[in-house]
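Two proteins follow. First one:
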Amino acid sequence: MKGEEWYQADEVAQEYDVKRFSRGGRLIDRREKRAVLDALNPLDDRKVLEIACGTGRFTVMLAERGADIVGLDISSAMMAEGRKKARAAGVADRIEFIRGDAARLPFPDDHFDTVFAMRFFHLADTPAKFLAEMCRVSKRQVFFDTFNDRSTRVLYNWLLPMGSRLYGHDEVKRLIDGAGLTLTDANHDFVLPYGFYRKIPNRLAGAFRSADTAIGDTPLGDHVASVSYWNAHV
């Protein structure tokens, strides 16, 4: 995985949410959570696995809405932050955090109703292997996002501490087919990249988001969007 050592550092885990989801990043947080909820609902009593759960942003949210969820991550420090969130939200009994390798998931076939991963595939060195494992342990649904190779993200990708793997839409569709999944829905968003929103005050983010979505709603929008959300079924 790209940036594996960086990602597991204690100081990265402690500052992760603040650096990415403060200022204009709050808008990103809301949009990503809405994308997950739109794809995964209804959640009552559903067995869910989150790959690369990190600090538990989505894990805790889904547990609050009735899911029984396992959060898997390679970073113990990240999951420690997630456990704090779960206890504060009163849903620790609905979440199990497990340190593990997404390429060799420690679960039997068809163990979960839904398996999903956010902000994971841009770090993946073997995406086909990871997606095949997600498919193997899911009996119904696989959901994930990718960063796109025709977007403004290309302009600053080299500045990131670990770099990012960028995908074309056709490449992702081939990965989905290769994993034995059927694509049921795809949404493409954020003409302006995440890094831009994180640099501006939250009070300005809404105005830029309006312009962003106006472009995104045109035929050009899908081609230049920086992020795609892929909803597939087994």
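Second one, unrelated to the first:
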Amino acid sequence: MSPLATPDIEESVDLSAAPLEPWEVVVWNDPVNLMSYVVRVFRTYFGYSLERATVLMRQVHHDGQAIVATGPRETMEVHAQAMHDYGLWATVRKATR
């Protein structure tokens, strides 16, 4: 066999990638920020409509938390840091659904 020849090898390679697990940004209620400010942050940063931002703010206020974004972990970490920069309490977690 010449040095450039390759032996006949049968290999089975699975090239399918594992699905990306979604992550969530959770904004938590705090005793500091006004509800109107939270709505403004959601509208300014995420581009949510007044209605959507208000629904999320009410979830934060009444339920103590709201999921404001879902996606890849790195992106969600950027969003959580942005919420911190606006003075909101936020965490990143694996999506539960």
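SUMMARY FIELD: The chain has a mean pLDDT of 89. Residues 59 and 70 are 16 Å apart (CA to CA).
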